[in-house]
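Worked example 2:
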Amino acid sequence: MYKKTIVCAAMCLSALVVQGCQTTGSSAAFVKKDPEKAVKVRTQMAAEYIRTGNLDAAKRVLDQALETDSKDSSANMMMGVLLQQEGSDANLQKADGYFTRAIASDPKNAQARNNYGTYLYQMQRYNEAVQQLNVAGSTLGYEQRARALENLGLTYLKLGQVANAEKTFKQALQVNRDSTISMLELSEILYEQQNVVVARQLYEQYVRIVGQKNQGARALWVGIRVARANQDQLGMQVLVNQLRALFPDSLEYQRYLKLQYTTEAVWK
């Protein structure tokens, strides 16, 4: 539904832009008549441009939106997302200012806090990321709350705060029972705690959702260790074969080769 709304808004604004090329007064009149709506539509159009990889077009419409209202929270947030997506050192540095302005303009903007938190995670500013993601993850009614909690759990793992990560991933599953990130991360956490029965249940639930053939190297490595801990040699061998066939150069497969003859209770 959200994507359809964005596409519709983008189509409407495309028509407006065409008219503006023919007669600039029409576009100016639209902005003058309802500047708030103009900013909203342009921000939605920028989101669609970013989704399709047209970053230059996204930058142009966001510049127009911010020229109309430099304090608009969503437009500032989207500019931060755009600069983060582009990824150069200069633009990554600029993105911080747009995210902070978005939150300053609207401290209750949970989406801005979630996006800023993921940016801070990328920049390895984990303690700051926790602050932003905590707010987003505790905002009732925010439709991406489960995603914010997933991001928060991953950040806790980076900080070595496993107990907080475990608690947060469980919260994410309460919000969205199909949170595959939380299933996989909890499976590994519980495996390392040697709670291997529940670890297996979570891993199997993860596989049911993503599909046996759609697992990455990390997921297969979790599954291999969980199967071994549950003395499921056949299941383990199936996953080893899949890891070898699909990801022979992965760190996970190299780790398996190194550990395959050890007798340690828990493979790290």
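The first helix runs from residue 2 to 22. The CA atoms of residues 10 and 45 lie 4 Å apart.
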